[in-house]
Amino acid sequence: MTDNRYDVIIIGTGAGGGTLAYHLAPSAKRILILERGDYVPREKANWDPQVVNVDAHYNTKESWLDKDGKELHPHTNYYVGGNTKFYGAALFRLRKEDFGELRHHGGVSPAWPISYDELEPYYTQAENLYQVHGNRGEDPTEPPANSPYPWPAVSHEPRIQQLSDDFARSGLKPFHVPVGVMLDEKNPQKSRCIRCNTCDGFSCLVGAKSDAQVVCIDEAIKHSNVTLLTNSLVKRLETDATGREVKGVVVERNGSLETYSADLVVVSCGAINSAALLLRSANDKHPRGLANSSDVVGRHYMGHTNSVMMAISKCPNPTIFQKTLGVNDFYFGSKDFEYPMGHISFVGKLDAITLKAGAPAIAPNFTLELMAKHSLDFWLTSEDLPDPNNRVTIGRDAKIVLTYTPNNLEAHERLQAKLKQAMKQTNCAIHGHECHQGLFARNLYVGQKIPLAGVAHQNGTIRFGNDPKTSALDANCKTHDLDNLYVVDGSFFPSSAAVNPALTIMANALRVGDHLLGRLGATSARQSRNQELVSTAD
Ligand SMILES: Cc1cc2nc3c(=O)[nH]c(=O)nc-3n(C[C@H](O)[C@H](O)[C@H](O)COP(=O)(O)OP(=O)(O)OC[C@H]3O[C@@H](n4cnc5c(N)ncnc54)[C@H](O)[C@@H]3O)c2cc1C
Ligand code: SF4
Hints:
By secondary structure, the chain is an alpha/beta fold.
């Protein structure tokens, strides 16, 4: 065995790759993790809204193209931990119904090749691993779970509690959003998380967010059988003469090209970059791109229809950690609209600096500073449907081209209307029903005002399924066309559902991890960990 030969190579360290690395690490198999980025530097600027939201300092400087060939600057991050370094850590399970076929106003959301029940044990493992804080039984659409959340929900601050009470009085069922922050409210002196206002969209300066670096990669590389190479951009995958096996992973590192090989290769570069990598790896045996006999690689790109809606009230909103309240009453529809509409929750508290860059409409008699002090900043998510013409391709100068036409928009407009109606029904003790001045939509991606650049929830580009003609991956996320190539990032989603995707990516990585351990003839990760504990005790 040469130095460049491993049992497993994992490409990417985000929600998918990081979680898989953690799961496989105790197996004693030789594992190489390749990450194009470096660690997020720990610096005061991590928590500076000007640097993070306005200057977009931590976003990649890479440019992609839209369908008309215009440059776009994607709102995405290349670091150890991937986009989880910057995520809001709202860690939701998909609904049980999301795994079946669902009829939407704009078309059909297809069924998954696995059921909710198959993923349930892995959701539980992922919630424990990522220390999710939540309360079961509050969310009316919540799927069945075999165990409670490992931590109680993060409490609402008074303004959000007041809104929750108002919503409940008007007949809604508001709930605490499940979040992965290491907050111990019973023991504040010892709590790693300090409950700050720079969480969603920011990297955590004190390492208290449950991201894939802190929770998974840092743990995985404690094992001597695991090697992490940062600043290592995978350029292409090469196959053997039969085309059935990846035999070389070509990496640009320190200005030159190096080739690594492994029995099993797992791609987890994020849905857009993974599709791009397979397309760029086309060869004689795979002329349309690797693992692409179905021609679905790159297609069915989804990213949710998302919007930020600011409700400006006469009452101030001094909330620090705002992402605690969710409303799913309209997830599957309502009496007046029988189709799914989506999910309502919050973004992190918006501040005047961030608002200035976004230039939203100004509420009457308000300045941006006053708006920021008085706004409730909602996050609305609706499902976008898989359209084969919404796709990733490779364009001029080998750049990524993202072609996307939004769909199922009626659902999102209805959801916005439902929120407006719900806000009218609130009844403030001081200002009555007149407390709320109105709702203003705001472009979240303030650094780059191109909505297409908002690729935070990217998924669907290398879908899994049972039919090799309509999917690129089988139910274990192995490519149908190759024997040793897997994909475990958000690419595998056949439908996007309408809750945040990361927990499903993590749970699926654990599920695929068990399958890979079986293939490697390794003991399960849990068994190995137990053995380690026994030998430490000895
Ligand atoms: C601001 C923001 C807020 C978010 N909030 C939430 C939230 O609250 N809840 C939620 O569920 N989701 C949230 N998300 C989305 C969530 O972060 C993603 O769904 C998740 O990180 C996707 O995981 P992944 O493994 O598919 O890809 P990523 O996490 O993007 O990981 C991909 C990794 O691959 C690396 N890579 C890419 N190409 C290559 C290559 N060629 N060679 C080597 N390495 C490569 C990248 O550098 C990266 O580290 C948010 C995202 C953002 C940006
Ligand atoms: S709220 Fe907690 S986890 Fe989030 S950035 Fe602040 S300290 Fe870190």
